[in-house]
Amino acid sequence: MDSLVAQLPGLVNELIAGFVSHPVAGDLSVFGISQYTFWMVVAIIVLCLVLFRFVKQQSKSLVPHGVFVNGVEFLVEYVRDNVLKGTVGDTWKKHFPFIATVFFFVLINDLFGLIPGAKPGTGSIAVTGAVATWSFVYFIYIGIQKKGAWGYIKSLAPKGVSFPINLVVWVIEVFSTFLRLVTLAVRLFCNMFAGHVVLGTFAIMASLFFGQIAAGAAPLATMSIGWELILIIIYAVEMLVAVIQAYVFALLSSVYVQLAEND
Fold this sequence. Notes:
By secondary structure, the chain is mostly helical. The chain has helices spanning 2-17, 35-58, 67-84, 92-112, 125-147, 149-155, 165-210, 218-262; strands at residues 23-27, 31-34. The termini are far apart.
């Protein structure tokens, strides 16, 4: 038992080290493709294939048939009704392409993170930062388009507040607006990274104890069953987290668009 515990820190450190970006092609200091970029591209290709098949299957009948078509249509309608219509309102059609793209991009990458050995885009702060930047640029653009550049800048200060209080509030609102970029990126990355570390750690524990079967240590081998059950439960929870994080990212992006349009 003590020997198994002694092995754990080294294996966990090795697990965490595996999350550091390394090149699968080229040189990252100049131009290269990291494992996160590779799996992100794979996820995007799979997403495109899924959507192309969905459109093809859906066009065959006015009434959706089959688990696949109904499942994808449910997600599309969920984004439309529960994410966009519930926050943005009447202008939802204008923003649907962007918000739906963000939702499905985050979702497919999160789900790829459940594949053993895969390093999805959302497991890298660079990718989550890039998606958050696009969301940030989008809602700023919508605000400027709606009110003009100067009008949007002025809208960050509340109406009816006298000087110099309004200036103080404006500075706070500007800081808060830029903070949205950081929170979008960090929230998604931290949730995915933490989930992968937990999954990996429990997988290591299960494999360590399960390996005792070959050594004839039946009591320790029996304990591995418990670790396996916990691993399965955490795996199921992580599947739920993957969907929730895609929903939260899309929802917050919609809220920021609504604020930019209506402030």
